[in-house]
Amino acid sequence: MYKLLIRPILFSFDPEKVHYFTFSLIRNLSKIPGISSLFKLIYNINDKRLETEVFGLKFKNRVGLAAGFDKDATLYKELSNFGFGFIEIGTVTPKGQEGNPKKRIFRLVEDSAIINRMGFNNGGVLEAVERLKKNNGVLIGGNIGKNKLTPNEDATSDYLICFDALFDYVDYFVVNVSSPNTPNLRELQEKEPLKQLLQTLQNQNLVMPKQKPILLKIAPDLTDSQLLDIIDIVKETKIAGVIATNTTLSREGLHSENKIETGGMSGKPLKNRSTEVIRFLSEKSNKAFPIIGVGGIHSAKDAIEKLEAGASLIQLYTGFIYEGPGLIKEINKAILKKL
After folding, report:
1. Of 41, 130, 132, 136, whose CB neighbour count within 10 A is largest?
2. How far is Cα 210 from Cα 204, in angstroms, rounded to an integer?
């Protein structure tokens, strides 16, 4: 029903405008008595066998919503009704910022992909905190970044501000240095600045009464040598794990007219590369740390491939947009069949 009726209507409008329209629609529908329960009835699978413990947290299932969809933590409660085991909010920055000029999201329908150059548009970390104070049971990841105008040499202070502000309101953290849409941000993936950033956050974490897992989100465009550096950094800083991968700058094999647009590409064309990165990290590290797999998951088969490559959890974004909320249930059914 989603792909036949709903998606063609949504895809006839501007991607960014329809995103906010859909948010408003879901929020308003969820206020109607019984609708949230109906969503849960349709899309949730409540089976103890789906539960898993990763980096000390108990997830009701392995399927999460990736960062970037609910940047400002405005709809995490309603989105959880579609069956997600966890929701990652953000990327949030210390100060609110508009992001890059519009138009900045482009559908590549022929390729089942999206190109975005949003640029960390968000209302600032404190706005997200106010909304997260109302959380009642949704497992939340907090994806943190730096403001566009903050130079890289001062980036650590931006990440610390977000870390401290969110600490009491999220279950785990994600350090985003891999978005291609903030100038020079990916330079922070180089070994020494990245190690310094992660160690500073980990030092802050260690003085807290109870530590929170810190993960690093990496780009799919890293070389094998850079991925080996990532493994070393994770071991040295003792962070909890890695999210593989963010969007790609590659346009290899694309057919849609919009492939000429700048920004990060997500969706089906990213599937194989993100799985390669997961497998490389898992094998070369001897499964030393958990990996959350994201990138190109449009079917239950795609999800199982990521898990078999070494991912402990997976996340959806573009696949959720193209395939609809039924995809979450399909993946959880497939996982149960594999048990």
Report:
1. 132
2. 11
Nearest to 122 by CA among 143, 91, 78, 151: 91
The counts of H helices and E strands in the chain are: 12, 13
Candidates 80, 112, 178, 179; catalytic one: 179
- With b meaning 16 or more CB within 10 Å and e meaning fewer, what string describes 123-162? bbbeebbebbeebeebbbbbbbbbbbebebeebbebbbbb
250 has catalytic annotation = no
Q: Is 143 annotated as a binding residue?
A: yes
CB 282 within 8 A of CB 308: no
- Residue 122 amino acid letter: N
Q: Are 228 and 277 contacting, i.e. CB atoms less than 8 angstroms apart?
A: no
Q: Per the annotation, does 52 bind a ligand?
A: no
For 112-151, what is each residue's pLDDT tens digit?
999 999 999 999 999 999 999 999 999 999 999 999 999 9
List of domains in the chain: 2-338 (3.20.20.70)
Closest CA relative to residue 27, chosen from 74, 91, 84: 74
pTM of the full structure = 0.96
